[in-house]
């Protein structure tokens, strides 16, 4: 943030105002691109890859997907709030070497609390099952029962923040607007979870079965596809084609319809025409999201041509899909478990580690020109 105190660290977000649009929604002509790429992105991989590996296999194959997966997914709306609403406050109060880590610790703590809330809605608070991939009968495992809720909250937060450009909440002080956006996302997600989602109770568990019209796996696949459209338009293509529309009302309407409709239509094509299972659709879409964040965020500004950026993203998607499926095979996971793990390894490991490094950690400890990255602050 531009306001600084005597020690040079940013003032609390409540004392300033955010720009009219989030940086990723700015037209390309107003956003400086890094002259340090691709070296800066390659250096970033030195942090991104180890963190991603730790998240992907830190608790084993199924264990990582079933224990770390829900917690990381519940953390994502908080990541969006800290990165794009608070512009890394309160980490900005600290030295640059500590800022990203401090924010990450706060996000992790908040994610555990939100996961516990999701578990309570799924059945009851069960601390043992929060951190146990196979808690046994009489418990409330968070995977997969809470995943539709977590996914809904995250996609809605991105829809408000990026697709909706934060309007009209960005007129408020960041410390107010961010939590309101988070609260709206959660309120809609809870309402959808309780009324729309069909939840099956694993045998012997205390998960509450729900008879909603949409199976949780189907909703999850559609949400990941909507996320893929969000990444394509707002990370890989920096808001194109919507930034070319001058009228805000028209621009936001077209953007919401395109992104949400694109996710639904994509699901129907992949499911009905290609006959892919929802878990396979989610896994492949997760590969695309991770690839899009790598090319559009980690290597931001390197590929200014939209067609080239899309080709590179699709190529990375194919590489990730093949490599991670092979890794899942080496771990001797079943087909469904393999898809679950690939989805976790991309969405909750590689994608999240990329966001944390670029949008929260501001690429520390590697040299960065402050205007090069979305929302970057002076060093």
Q: List segments where confidence is low: pLDDT < 50 over at least 5 consecutive residues.
A: 1-15, 28-33, 368-379
Shape: globular
Number of domain units: 1
Radius of gyration: 20 Å
Strand content: under 5%
Mean pLDDT: 86
Q: What's the helical proportion of residues? A: 55-70%
- Give the spatial strand order of the biggest sheet: 2-1-3
Distance between the termini: 11 Å
Largest sheet: 3 strands, mixed
The computed structural class is mainly alpha
Q: H/E element string?
A: HHHHHHEEEHHHHH
Supply the number of helical segments: 11
Overall number of strands: 3
Please explain how this structure is put together.
There is one protein chain. This protein is mostly helical and 379 residues long. It has one domain (13-360). It contains eleven helices and three strands, in the order ααααααβββααααα. The chain has helices at 39-57, 61-85, 96-122, 127-130, 147-163, 174-195, 216-236, 248-273, 278-298, 306-330, 335-360; strands at residues 197-199, 210-211, 214-215. A three-stranded mixed β-sheet has the order 2-1-3. α2 crosses α6 (174-195). The radius of gyration is 20 Å and the shape is globular. The termini are close together. Mean pLDDT is 86; it is low at 1-15, 28-33 and 368-379.
């Amino acid at each position: 943030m531009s306001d600084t105190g005597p020690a040079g660290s940013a003032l609390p977000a409540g004392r300033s105002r955010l720009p009219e649009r989030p940086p990723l929604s700015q037209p390309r002509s107003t956003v400086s691109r890094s002259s340090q790429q691709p070296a800066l992105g390659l250096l970033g991989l030195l942090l991104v890859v180890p963190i991603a590996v730790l998240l992907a296999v830190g608790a084993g194959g199924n264990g990582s997907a079933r224990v770390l997966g829900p917690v990381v997914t519940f953390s994502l709306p908080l990541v969006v709030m800290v990165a794009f609403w608070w512009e890394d406050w309160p980490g900005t109060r600290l030295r640059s070497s500590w800022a990203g880590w401090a924010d990450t610790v706060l996000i992790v703590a908040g994610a555990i609390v939100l996961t516990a809330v999701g578990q309570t809605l799924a059945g009851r608070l069960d601390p043992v099952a929060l951190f146990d991939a196979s808690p046994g009968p009489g418990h409330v495992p968070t995977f997969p029962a809470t995943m539709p809720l977590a996914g809904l909250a995250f996609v809605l937060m991105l829809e408000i923040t990026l697709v909706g450009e934060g309007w009209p909440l960005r007129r408020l002080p960041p410390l107010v607007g961010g939590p309101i956006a988070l609260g709206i996302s959660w309120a809609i997600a809870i309402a959808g979870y309780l009324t729309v989602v069909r939840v099956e109770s694993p045998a012997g568990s205390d998960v509450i079965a729900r008879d909603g019209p949409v199976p949780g796996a189907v909703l999850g696949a559609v949400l990941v596809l909507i996320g893929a459209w969000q990444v394509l338009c707002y990370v890989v293509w920096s808001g194109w084609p919507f930034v070319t529309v001058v009228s805000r009302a028209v621009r936001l309407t077209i953007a919401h319809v395109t992104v949400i409709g694109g996710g639904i239509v994509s699901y129907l094509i992949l499911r009905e025409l290609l006959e892919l299972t929802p878990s396979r659709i989610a896994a492949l879409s997760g590969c695309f999201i991770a690839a899009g964040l790598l090319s559009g965020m980690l290597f931001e500004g390197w590929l200014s041509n939209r067609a080239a950026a899309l080709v590179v993203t699709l190529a990375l998607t194919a590489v990730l899909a093949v490599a991670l499926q092979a890794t899942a095979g080496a771990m001797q996971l079943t087909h469904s478990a393999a898809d679950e793990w690939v989805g976790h390894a991309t969405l909750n490991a590689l994608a999240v580690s990329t966001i944390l490094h670029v949008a929260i950690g501001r690429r520390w400890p590697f040299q960065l020109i402050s205007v090069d990255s979305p929302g970057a602050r002076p060093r």
